[in-house]
Design a protein that fits this description.
Length: 228
Amino acid sequence: MPPASNENPTRAAINRANSEHSTGPRTPAGKQRSSLNALRHGLTGHVVVLPTEDLTAYQSHLQRFVDQFQPKGALEEQLVQSLGDTTWRLNRVPAIEATFLTLAAEDHLDSIRTNEPRAAGALALAQAFHHQSRALANISIYEQRLARLFDRTLKQLREIQAERREHERRQMDDAAEILQMHEVRAIPYDPAQDGFVFSTAEIQTFIQRRDRLEEAYCEPDRELAAVS
C-alpha cells in the first residue's frame, strides 16, 4: 500500500494544473529576459554556440584557425579548437555590452524629462552606465580572462608545434641519409621499415630542396674565389 501523502489534495491538483499549463515565458518581455539569461552565461559557460547565434558562422570561424595552424594530433587539435572557441566568445563581448546597455537605457527613458529625443537617449544611456557599472565591470573581467586564456593557449600551441616540427626535421634528415645510402647501393627502400611516416617522394623532395639550398649558400663563395 503506498504511503500516505501529507500534501493537500486541492493544492496537489492546482500544482498539477499549473505544471501542465506552464510553457515558459510567453510575453515578448519574458522571452527577451529568457534569451538574455543564455547570454548572461555565454562568456563563462561551456556552450560555445548560443541558440541565438549562427552555427554555420561558428564552423567557418573555427575552420579559419584550422587552416592557419594546420594541427597534427589530438593535443594540437584541442588547442586550436580552444583558440577558435575563445575568440568566438571574445567576439561576443561587444554585442553583449551593446544589448545590455540598450535594454538598461530603455528602462530609464521614462524618467527623462525632455522633448529632445537625442538628448533623452544620451541621458538614459548615461544613467544605464551609472546604475549598471558593476555588471559592466564583470563583463570586462570575463573579457580579460578570455584574453589571457587565448594568450596562454596560443603560446602553448606554438611551443608544441615548434617542438613537433623540430622532431620532424631531425627525422627527415635521418630518412634522407638512409634513402641516399640505399640509392647508392641500388637497394629499394621503404621508409616505414624504419618507423618513418614520410613517403619516399617526400624524402626525395626534401633532399632536392636541401641540395639546392646548399648550392645557393655556396654560390657567393665560388664567385668570390673566382674574382680573387
